[in-house]
Amino acid sequence: MLTDTTTGAGRAVLIHDRCPTLAELTDTARQLTDRRPDLCRLRTVGASRAGRPLTLLSVGRAERPGRPERNVLVVAGAHADEFAGRASIVELAHRVLARPALRTAATWNFLLCLDPDGAHLARGALTARTLPEYFAGYYRPAAEEQPEWAPAIGARLPESRTLLDLIDELRPTLQFTLHSMDVGGTFLQATCDPTVLAAPFATSAAALGIPVETGTYDTFWLRESGPGVYLMEPHHIDRQESSTGMLAPHPARRPDDTGGVRASTWFAPQRHGGQTVIVEVPAWTSDRLGDTRPADDAPERLTASADRLRTRTALLADLLTAALPHLPDQDTALLRAARTPLAASRQLADEWDPRALGRRLLRPGLMTRAKLAGIDLWAHRIPVRAAALLRRAVEPAGARAACDTARLDALLQDWCARYQRRFRPAWLPVARQAEHQANIVQAAVELRHPA
Prior knowledge:
The chain is an alpha/beta fold.
């Protein structure tokens, strides 16, 4: 790695084995700009709903006589609960400064955090090294408050507008969005055929000891271009997200909105001839999500996952109903956030259940052991997320909701323990998370713009 430990963000990654705070990341970007003003520029490109700045670090000047500047855009913090992208930006910025060939290929633009408001609410999970610690401070916004996704359902967020305007300004040949998850493996999605990335992706994952995830439900309906490498076609993603309830229309959506995934920030670079690549890494690895052999017990396993999801969702819905009268504010960010996984759970259970819509999952050749494990993982992850969000949401009620709080604490402890027993998560050092994402971004740029 080339990350510099003289910066706060570098120390966080390499010495303290954690992702940097937003303050550390911004300060590091400022230090790099002060050290290399000939190569680095730092500017505010927008503001969040709460007025927090959206900051862009640009590195390099890939201007060539008679030819327009080529830009690469790297976005971190699209989801508040995903921290790895911050560390990856630190590594990538240092690589670009150290390697003139990368600066010749393109000007690199790093949006330090797309959702600083969400990051503020999720800051309690930043230093977690166990799942219970992580979920104690967990936050992920409601679907219509996630800036990358909001345009797909007609929600208008200033953060989304800032990113879309930035794409129109920079006209990036490649946009990278750096994502992560709690437990899992690594996988990659792209809006163009990512077959050429399959080899560097596999090489990096193997070298860093990161399992490749071939069964995540995030990509269930996408076309696989190699192990863990997927093509994002709009009609497939619309089908995928409809199954999770994420494409439900936003109440503020106007009749003339086109909506659908084509309106998301992922596909915006295409209007300028560019493409988007999404790189996912886990905070904790699991070796249960890569078995591509056909599943021989799919109906039973799918039924069990659907039933688990329904049972847990019903428990949480009852607790939410009981707690609401005691809350001083019934429209907080945490309450809105808790409702998203609860709503998704009901639809997912029907989607998986062989006794209902899940029959279409059982087509020959479609269901592998990894995909069954991926659905099993979601059946554990989604209720834990909902319980964690609801636990934080009812906290302001204090003693008036003490019974509900105690019940939520007990559920979180039990469900986290079951999640851990089922998937045996192993902590992946932050430096390896960052190195893997940086490797894939660098490889994609070098393939698109060879020296």
